[in-house]
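Internal ticket #5521
Category: modeling
Description: The requester needs a full-assembly model to guide mutagenesis choices. All entity lines are attached below as received. Residue total reported by intake: 450.
Assigned to: D.W.
Attached entities:
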Amino acid sequence: MLSAIMEDYLKAIYYLQDETDERVRTSTFAEHMDVEQPSVTSMVKKLAERDFVHYEPYKGVVLTDTGIPIALEIIRHHRLLERYLTERLEYDWAEVHDEADRLEHHISSQFADRIAEQLGNPAVDPHGDPIPTADLDVSPPQSGETLADQQVGEKVRIERVPDHDPDLLRYLSEHGITPTTVVEIVETTSFGMVTLDPDGTDERVALPEEVARIITTQTLTGASN
Amino acid sequence: MLSAIMEDYLKAIYYLQDETDERVRTSTFAEHMDVEQPSVTSMVKKLAERDFVHYEPYKGVVLTDTGIPIALEIIRHHRLLERYLTERLEYDWAEVHDEADRLEHHISSQFADRIAEQLGNPAVDPHGDPIPTADLDVSPPQSGETLADQQVGEKVRIERVPDHDPDLLRYLSEHGITPTTVVEIVETTSFGMVTLDPDGTDERVALPEEVARIITTQTLTGASN
DNA sequence: CTATAAACTTAGCCCCATCTAATTTCGCTC
DNA sequence: GAGCGAAATTAGATGGGGCTAAGTTTATAG
């Protein structure tokens, strides 16, 4: 059996590996988990001993074939919970993350399967992230285009918004921006500001470019997730 | 903040205190929690330091006014979860206990309140145990009569069945015995066997007296939970 | 090719919750 | 009220996960 903490490390490796596409370094890790570097080193050694990760001292860490399904299972739990909490228990888009972050380690896969069933086996969570299936398939990474890539005048559908910053989520939802909403880019500035017009409204929503860069989009050619 | 384990100890004290109506002894405790006695002693000291229990060495332990609400909160979580799992997630009466036992420590009270709301703030869990309200009131202990107290020929309503033994629960539900069902006592023997006839059926269900003694009943005079 | 800063690991400590073995206290019998 | 067995406690160890401080290793600049 794995502790909740070990599961968290595996999940973190999965995410970080995905982002940087190479071995995850101790420092990246420590920052992400909000622990000191030596804690990471020692945990990583334990995980390596149990064969969940491949660890090369001073070089970083990669999930093994044993580790990947464990990470995916947790991610499945997390995203299903987020969906369930918002859809069935009236949680707010923004407050869902913390609750899911705790519960993901404690629900059985039976529980996960039951809520998945209740929800009609949804493909994505409320932030637009894909939910791994019961046999742990994940949809391929989506378009990869972000709001920051768009030209003025383009209309795109919001695909995915990262779920880590409640303030950002609150701001976005208050201004009508959630996955699946369509927005038009009305302005981009040289000093890194992107201004949007959510579907049909007259309201303008301004975002710093660094935020625009983490919100992925779909081009409007019929695909609808 | 309390650890899940401390919460478990407090919950256990609450239950055991209720049963025996006096200070809970180390040995009782150890058996109930499935740990060795020294573990109990050391944990109890920590709880006493934090003023959750009153502890007198060699004498046993009682919950303080600080400890009681914590135990009740956990019990509320547990019973709401049991209800939610059976009613909304198609869990079986018998398999509900373990899942609830883990989750009770990890759901927020917000979560508890939401599922309570979804369920229409039920008063009892699927085993017939009362669910503490959001402000932690518990209904007074019920009749106190059990199946073992009944005379042959009596008809009573099943009130409460303890939730700890999945095998027993499975057996009972297979034979149509759950809280709120009405049964007639058809036979009691000198060697400790009680035979029942669940409402309207012709089936006979036999129970050893030690089981009959933990199933509480209501007399059939209009009261309905 | 060396010097040095940054990144990483090792060493050694802490707290938590558990255990076994050894000791103390309780409560009862005679 | 002395002795004895059962119950409880203390002592001391273990494993999990974290920290700080003190080395290493790596990578980069010159």
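Resolution: model delivered.
Comment from assignee: The mean pLDDT of chain B is 89.
Ticket closed.
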